[in-house]
Design goal:
The chain is an alpha+beta fold and 288 residues long. It has six helices and seven strands, in the order H-H-H-E-H-E-E-H-E-E-H-E-E.
Length: 288
């Protein structure tokens, strides 16, 4: 891509140099046409600069997209390898060692969680592909949204910090929604997983579902590093991830919030991002 930009700028420089050279030659031969040549040359130079700007922006956009796709492939590879390695290790331990039943059940439960993580990743990729190709129809039905949020919260609960509850849930019961249960489960899963992922070890994540002026309101709050103001809208772009890709430690594919935005748009719902106090981010989803 850098080579393409270099060739483009060389051709642009050549075109400008040729224009000035021919203009100088014509003015020397016919001085009376100087005003006409200056006017037409200015217009040509203006149009050339405008065209160069848009071509440059297009090349840079393609370069950024290519870089994001490469980072996405690396992230997906890492996301697949980590749970697969953990599942393999757990199964090998069960096979090779004579473990007590409680230990075997613990390893099997951990493997099931890793399998669910893999399942979420695959579902995210399939859903993102269908949404982008406009082949997903978003079939809607009435269902208990409170029950859905409660089940997802329980499944994603972190149990690696002793008896401390990491996901602190306050879910008002019997909140009904007319929507796509599968797609909205992906929304809730992605929001909670992001909050857990970007929070510090054993940091509390708050999930709240209630009625606000008769409308369902889902709030997911974390105590992570937060999101800069200039990135609050960019985070919903496909493959976009907060921070510098070279030094980022958190895992992810950049598809989660893209799916969240697209699904909520198809459900006439709004999402806002706010700063948490003293640190972190708050995602609020309002269903109209």
């Amino acid at each position: 891509m850098k080579k393409s930009l270099l060739i483009f700028y060389l051709l642009l420089l050549y075109a400008v140099a040729e224009m000035f050279w021919w203009g100088t030659v014509v003015i020397r031969l016919q001085p009376e046409r100087m005003a006409m040549i200056m006017g037409e040359g200015s217009v040509f130079l203006f149009l050339l600069c405008v065209g160069a700007y848009f071509i440059h922006a297009s090349i840079k956009k393609e370069d950024k997209l290519h870089e994001q796709q490469q980072n996405f492939l690396l992230s997906v590879t890492h996301e697949l390898k980590s749970p697969l390695a953990a599942i393999k290790l757990s199964l090998q331990t069960i096979i090779k060692r004579d473990l007590e039943r409680n230990m075997q059940l613990s390893l099997l439960n951990n493997s099931l969680k890793d399998i669910e993580r893999l399942d979420d990743l695959v579902e995210n990729m399939l859903l993102a592909t269908k949404i982008e190709s406009r082949t997903y129809s978003f079939p809607k039905e009435e269902f208990d949204f409170s029950e859905l949020v409660g089940k997802i919260t329980d499944r994603l609960q972190v149990h690696s910090c002793g008896d401390e509850q990491i996901i602190n849930a306050h879910i008002q019961g019997n909140i009904k929604l007319l929507g796509d249960r599968f797609a909205l489960s992906s929304v809730v899963t992605n929001l909670i997983e992001n909050a857990v992922k970007y929070s510090g070890p054993c940091a509390e994540v708050a999930v709240e579902l209630c009625q606000n002026d008769g409308k369902p309101l889902l709030t997911v709050s974390d105590k992570g590093p937060g999101i800069p103001d200039h990135e609050k809208m960019l985070i919903f772009d496909k493959f976009y991830r907060v921070g510098d890709e070279n030094v980022r430690k958190s895992k992810g594919t950049g598809l989660g919030l893209f799916i969240v935005k697209e699904v909520l748009q198809n459900h006439d719902a709004d999402i806002t991002v706010k700063d948490n106090v003293p640190q972190g981010a708050i995602f609020e989803v309002t269903f109209n």
